[in-house]
Each structure stands twice: as C-alpha cells, then as structure tokens.
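Dear all,

This email documents one entry for the complex benchmark we are building for the journal club exercise. For each entry we list the sequence lines for every component of the assembly. Then comes the predicted three-dimensional structure of the complex as a token string, followed by one or two observations. Please use this as the template for your own entries, and keep the labels exactly as they appear.
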Amino acid sequence: MKLKNDKLIISNKKFNSRLIVGTGKYKNLLECAKAVKFSGADIVTVAVRRVNIINKKKPLLMDFIDPKKITYLPNTAGCFNSEEALRTLRLAREIGGWKLVKLEVLGDKKNLFPEMIETLKSTEILAKEGFKVMVYCNDDPLMAKRLENNGASAIMPLAAPIGSGLGIQNKVNIKIIRDQTKLPVIIDAGLGQASDATIAMELGCDGVLVNTAIAKAKKPLDMAIAFKNAVIAGRQSYLSGRIDKSLMGFPSSPKEGII
Amino acid sequence: MKKIKKIKIKVNGNFKSVEFNTTLLKLTKNLKIPVKKVAIELNQEIVDKKLLNKIKLKKNDKIEIVHFIGGG
C-alpha cells in the first residue's frame, strides 16, 4: 500500500496523519499552534475548563488552532469518576457538536493510571448517547476487549504513566491488544522521544498520541517534526514487513567468487 | 425612584450580583462571553444555547461556563 493512501480511520472518518498531539503544557498558545502545525497532526486533544470570567482578555485556544481545520478531541483529563467524565463530555459536545471524544477516567493521582471500572461504565453510556469514544486504558488485553464490547471507537492503551517519558513498557501486551481487535489502537501517554513512536507504529499500532514529549522538549517545534517523521517511518516499516529474527549471522555479500 | 432588585448567583465559582429577571443571554453579554465557543450549565443542567434569551436567572442559581483549553 502506498503511504499516501494509508489513512487512519476512526468511526468511518479518515485522517491523513497517524500522530495525534496534545495541546497542554506549552509555553504559550502560539508555540502550541506552531508545534501542531509542524507535527502535521489532524487531531488535537483539548481539555474542557471554566472560562476565566475575571480576566476576559485571556487568549482562546480556538483563536490559535482553527477547529474547522484541525479536529478537536475533547478529553476528560482530571476526572476521577464516571459522573465527572460524562458531565465533561456532554458539555464538550454542547460547545460545538463534538461527538469524537477522548475518555480518560483516572484512578490514582500519583501514577495517573486509568480507573478501568469507571472507564468501562462511561464508555458504554457515552456510546449509547451517540459519542464516538476513544478510550485511554491500561495495556491490558482483557480490558481492551471489554472496551470494544462496550462500544469504544478506539482503544488507547498507555505506553507508560502519563507524562513519564518512559516509552512502551509492555510491547507484548500492546501487540496482543493490536492483534485481537478491529478497532484502531492508538498509544496514548508515556512516550518520551521520537523513536518510541516508531516502535509503537512498528508493533502495528494505528497511531500515537503525544503531548508532554513534544511540549516539554527543549525544542518543542523540532521535536514535533521528529515525531511526525518517526510515526511515518514506523508505519512504513510496519507495512514493509520486517525480516525474521535469527540468532545466527547471514552474510550480506555473496560467498561465491571470494578470492 | 424605584430600587432595582438584585439577586445573588454563582458563575464559575464566583458570587455575582445581577438584576432580578436578568436572562442568561444578558449575563453572557455582560461577561463578554463568546457564546459560540462555550457550553453553559445552569444548576448542573446543560442549557440549549438557542434558549439563552428565554431563561431568567433566579436567586442562588449556579452557572458554569466552559470552553476548550490546551490539554493532553
């Protein structure tokens, strides 16, 4: 398959880029908007928060990143139970008809691991309400399967704790999750450098979601480009079909004609 | 001169005093809220933005106005 025709498909919607980027933690909104542009991402995650009614001149994200050109993926960051998450996403939908959402119900304030029981419950309710739910989850194949059964639109297992930069900790589980589902699998959270994204793509994942690794890099804009290229490289490598692994060596040059 | 009756409401966690019978639309205008870019909750119920001019505020109403900000 030509890479040009290779699209990320989520709930029948096609996206050119397999890199989704977060819009948090940047120095300012201008830097964020530039990083999004350089990353080539078609989808950005956004948080739902109170409008600052005291300082009305505070710049708005929508003035920097046009939601008509880039798909906003509202998240439920900071929600620790189903009620909070549902309330947040219902509000997000109200802002402008968003149905594609990222569900993230956290269970522990220190490691930010997902609270999977609340996540499963929320997924089912949201799917019934017509949301297309991309779900942040553990790298647990059994939970991933349950999410699929509960109506998730994409499975988004963590590579490592959010913001940790540790890269994929359990490649085997990620591979199992990828191979058992028809849904897109997007690695969400824990990547630290561009090569981590390549590894995810080479495992067959459909995309990666990156925020901290770009926003907190010493040069965020350059790192945005690095991630863009890393995702393309990983996808192309995956589609090209790697060689078998061997414990022994095989010469690359022919044995015949040796002087 | 007739004194204008005022009521206390809460907007995004802050107490605010508004004229009795103020509509939600008037409140958003006073606060310079770009209505198209926000969602509004009145006492934990989402408000249909088309009905803002029909909803009159009552004492102790709790209003939440949210929008999108940077997030991961």
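Observations: The longest helix of chain A spans residues 220-240. The CA atoms of residues 41 and 58 of chain A lie 25 Å apart.
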